[in-house]
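A student in our group prepared the protein record below, which I am reviewing. I have pasted the whole thing underneath without changing anything:
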Amino acid sequence: MSTVTLKSAREHRVTAPSLARRKSRGEPIAMLTAYDFTFARIFDAAGIDVLLVGDSLGNVVQGHDTTLPVTLDETIYHTRLVARAAQRALVVADMPFGTFQISPEEALRNAVRCVKEGGAHAVKLEGGVAIAPTIARIVAAEIPVMGHVGLTPQTATALGGYRAQGRTAERAKAVLDEALALQEAGCFAIVFEAIPADVTDVMMGHMEIPVIGIGAGGSTDGQVLVLHDLLGIHGDAHPKFVKRYADLRGEMVRGLTEYAEDVRTRRFPGPEHTYGIAPEELHRLHEQIPVRQRA
């Protein structure tokens, strides 16, 4: 990459402060999950602003039913792959369950690892009032923190399952209190997940930092989806709030079925897929190695 290109990439990099400026200008923010180099490079080239190395990798990459089994080492590994690809996007590492709940100091150590070993530009923590002191400690160490309220998958069981949050006035007020506590603690942005759109409309009037929605309506400052849902890599089932922009699974199955059939009928590889050897070299080879018929 030339010096001019490097300078241009730096000038256009998405940062926590630049997202704040985007909010002030009313410019929506596009965020997606990413777990490897190849997809991250594609998303970065497509202009996605924020790449979240979500603990959803437990579901869509590892095949678990929940996000809980994901470890810090696994998060760091996947973050490293995504950070290697990101020339423009802000890379956020989702801190797994158990890595920030024990104490603010342990949470800070783990956040440092995400940045130092994984190459993350920021970390994300789920939770509200209870983790505000932890977030403040991490922010004090100059590591940007993204919050996450509403439906928090790591504690979905305590919330009554994977369902919308804030559907009563009391619960909606509690979600707002959680968001305000995170804002006060120093988060540069917050994810609102599975919150009724009318509730989000009320909450947005109190938010001074960028809010990224997922199933929280259209009044947030941006949106995030899991790439496997957006691109149709999973099967037919997907959350209500997902809009599918492609059916990659269908195309992948079609292409792989065609490949298997070509292999079985010996249509692949064809002459155009093979390497050649000069006739004289082939003649010399036959002189040195007797040709045997296959058994």
Observations:
- The domain at 3-230 is CATH 3.20.20.60 (TIM Barrel).
- Confidence is low (pLDDT under 50) at residues 1-11.
- Residues 169-185 form the longest helix (17 residues).
